[in-house]
Please model this.
Amino acid sequence: MENLIFYATYILHSLIFIVLILLSVAFYTILERKIISAMQRRMGPNIVGPFGLLQAFADALKLLTKKTILPTNANSLIFIVGPLVTFCFGLLSWTVIPLGKEAVFVNTSMSILYILAFSSLSLYGLIISGWASNSKYAFFGTVRAIAQMISYEVSLGLMIICIACTAGTLNLSGIVMAQIHVWYCFPHFPIFVLFFIAALAETNRHPFDFAEAESELVSGYNTEYGSVAFVLFFLAEYAAMILMSTLISLLFLGGWYAPFNCYPGGSIVFLIIKILIMMTLFVLVRASYPRCRYDQLMEFCWKYTLPITLAWFIFTVCVLNGLNGFPPIGGPLSSFDVFV
Model:
């Protein structure tokens, strides 16, 4: 009986967490449209609900009530499975994200590797969808997305290794606790900036949204999708943006700790504020910069981002080794004081 209650409680908490993520995506779309409309000096959503706050739910209802159409030449089973794979792996990445010292579903010592693994597995959803659609536009969008995400994951991995070496742990809670005195965005400022740029490319966001370039590929890998399947892709994309904003806040901005540790112990409120700031930056970049060429994106990755990241990793290791500052695995989390 106790086991049944435990599993029922765990499932209930999981469902509540999933609903919160979906609601965050809904309100994030409204925030995005409000910011972009303000920057373009127009009204934006302002009719459905107070201040247009229910516009996202109206759009979701419209998409969910549309008829699902399967292309004649598509592989029907794989065509349906593709969006589900992308959506599920996108949600599973959240299981190791700490929102506080104890507020985490799975507190594993390898949470960083877990996130990298599931973010890579989400590629299979794009591969399946692009191939099963049997469309040239969808296939080209899939190829672009795969090449883009794999390229920038190499740089993202090296950046995260720099942070892990500094903190002495691959656990996200441990990395946050290591920043109690100094946030990593200050000593690791170059890779902090590059991490944000790589996050834009990793999530196929403007100005790097080549997988969905309307002028070239109609809508990319999701060209043939509509109704519920398109909603799943949409939710996965925006959930990935919120996940990246959360990761940046945890890895570089001290997580739930206040600036200068002015509020001892920290609070989830500070983490939410940092996440909202990073989410707003995603939108501001979209509203400010035009889409560049695909070859420029790949050139920036392999000729600039990767060499700079690799050089910074070597520099970090040399400094830690020279100052005898390598923290033991799972050891003192305040060992970053060698930089201060």
Q: What stands out?
A: DSSP finds twelve helices and no strands in the chain. The CA atoms of residues 242 and 279 lie 7 Å apart.
